[in-house]
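Notes for week 9. Today we move from apo structures to complexes. The key idea is that a small molecule is not decoration. When we ask for a structure prediction with flavin mononucleotide present, the ligand SMILES becomes part of the input, just like the chain. The input block below holds both the sequence and the ligand string. Read it once before you look at the output, and try to guess where the molecule might sit.
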Amino acid sequence: MKVIAINGSPRKKWNTAQMLESALAGCKDAGAETKLYHLIDLKFKGCTSCFACKRLGGPSYARCAMRDDLTQVLNDAWDADVLIVGSPVYFGDVTADTRAFLERFWFSVLMYNKEHMVRAPKKMPVKIIFTTNAPEFGFHKALNESVTGAMSRFVGPTELIEANATLQFDDYSKYDASMIDEADRKKRREEVFPLDLKKAYEMGRRAVEEAKAIK
Ligand SMILES: Cc1cc2nc3c(=O)[nH]c(=O)nc-3n(C[C@H](O)[C@H](O)[C@H](O)COP(=O)(O)O)c2cc1C
């Protein structure tokens, strides 16, 4: 059982990364091998609209033809038994790096074909983790629906969890952030974030069980 996780946050140790690490700990405890990619470490671009992935009889049919650091990530993602994608919400969307990954991951298996719109090599469970400044789950409802909807169509049964009202910096007094109640944020960090991490851990365990059922 192979699990690939993708961190779309530029921060490799903060909220999204910690949620992903916790999900992967759950996967490992359920017996899976895991690998975490931090997109910030990689040099890549979004889809360039070359359409090589839709070229009939072409060498890249249903695969992304672009060659850069994302190539290995895309190959590993399609090779995995479970895919986990984490992103902070930026301006009501995923981060630019996450979006570039999703463009290439989804578009390469989407065909403009009347009968077979999806040419994915397989189905696998997908788990999405969003972290937000917003106070509660579902604040970015349209985003959640669009990412869950596309993943379900192109890849497999998709579940999404969030960690909300995350801690953004260690010391709020050093930043222009008077809108945010520091004491409240820190309390939440101590009381709610551990529960979010636990949710991620359990989701990781569940994902591996779901993947075994699909195999
Ligand atoms: C450029 C930028 C835009 C953001 N936009 C939003 C937003 O639209 N909605 C929201 O809830 N949080 C927003 N946030 C807050 C982050 O989503 C939140 O702090 C997240 O937990 C950060 O993840 P990280 O700690 O893994 O980097 C934004 C943060 C940044 C840096």
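The chain has one domain: 2-214.
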